[in-house]
Write a structure and sequence with these properties.
Blueprint lengths: L5 H13 L4 H11 L3 H4 L8 H14 L1 H16 L5 H4 L4 H18 L1 H25 L3 H17 L4 H18 L8 E3 L2 E3 L1 E5 L2 E8 L7 H12 L5 E7 L5 H6 L7 E5 H8 L5 H15 L6 H6 L2
Parallel strand pairs: 4-5, 5-6
Antiparallel strand pairs: 1-2, 3-4
Length: 306
């Protein structure tokens, strides 16, 4: 792919500095968008936001041979932004929204060639996805998913909550390994229980899995967020709650620096039934969190957009 033009680079700097007002929101967006977390560690978050954005893009351009995918991902994600309601509620919100829309439109215009190439890549990925879906219907992967699905159904009828929790952890570990996500089993460190860990798109994810009678509340997400904040910068989280999450919990953790994405029982069943593969599910959820700030995207919305 050709190098990103200087005009597009300048437009990227300007758009990146206007799409979010608070540095915590900007940092969360970058955490979810950029795979090279080491570059983020070079940024001084006490500096002015425009300086932070300029330094980040300069660092990416300096190492473009290795980081072009991150540059193009930023261009793609920002160019597809249409909702700036998070700016409207601020003082002079209408002006901030106007500036953000103009900056994004300018980036979209000068990056047209690169976006077309990305579209071609996306079409290739869609063809790969179609092939994978066909394979799911007739390969050993499909057979294994059917086995996992039956195991999950047996857990649903279990009255032993503790045993069910342990078996769910094992099922998830095996499921993630089936999709080559390098999953590790649960482990303990001082004062903490970690349900699991896996690697996805060059990021380490801590896994928390709960099967409570009621939807997960804010305190549970607060506790998981605390575990994540004590890890390295490139560590994110996936919280799986079979019976979902309370609206307040989702809203509370969809502001500030977002460290996790959420899955529920409906998401898990869609994977076990072969309606979507686990990789695509995680990609869609992470992309949605990057674009909107909302850490939860339900499977019904994902399937509508397929």
């Amino acid at each position: 792919m050709k190098k990103v033009s200087a005009t597009a680079i300048n437009a990227l700097k300007n758009a990146l500095s206007t799409i979010y007002w608070y540095k915590s929101d900007l940092r969360s967006f970058l955490d979810h968008t950029i795979s090279n977390k080491q570059i983020l560690s070079y940024l001084d978050w006490n500096d002015y936001k425009r300086n932070i954005c300029s330094r980040l893009v300069d660092l990416l351009v300096k190492n473009e041979e290795k980081t072009q995918n991150d540059i193009l991902r930023l261009v793609y994600e920002i160019s597809n932004m249409n909702d700036f309601s998070h700016l409207k509620q601020l003082e002079d919100g209408e002006d901030k929204v106007k500036s953000a829309k103009e900056a994004v439109a300018a980036l979209r215009k000068v990056s047209k060639g690169h976006l077309e190439q990305l579209k071609e890549q996306e079409e290739i990925e869609n063809r790969r996805k179609k092939v994978l879906e066909e394979q799911l219907g007739k390969t050993a992967v499909r057979e294994k998913l059917e086995e996992f699905k039956n195991d999950f159904y047996s857990l649903v009828s279990s009255n032993d909550a503790q045993k069910r929790g342990y078996q769910l952890e094992k099922l998830l570990k095996d499921l993630f390994n089936l999709f080559d996500l390098d999953s590790k089993a649960s482990f303990k460190i001082v004062g903490e229980q970690i349900d699991g860990m896996f690697t996805f798109e060059n990021n380490d994810f801590l896994l928390e899995a709960k099967w409570h009678k009621d939807p997960i509340d804010i305190s549970s997400l607060d506790s998981f967020s605390g575990k994540l904040s004590r890890r390295l910068e490139n560590t994110l989280g996936l919280f799986i709650s079979i019976n979902g999450f309370s609206p307040d919990a989702i809203q509370a953790h969809s502001t500030g620096r977002r460290l996790m994405i959420l899955m529920d029982g409906s998401d898990l069943m869609a994977v076990l039934e072969g309606r979507i593969d686990l990789i695509q599910l995680l990609i869609r959820k992470r992309r949605y969190a990057s674009q909107t700030g909302n850490i939860y995207l339900g499977i019904h919305e994902i399937m509508k957009g397929k």
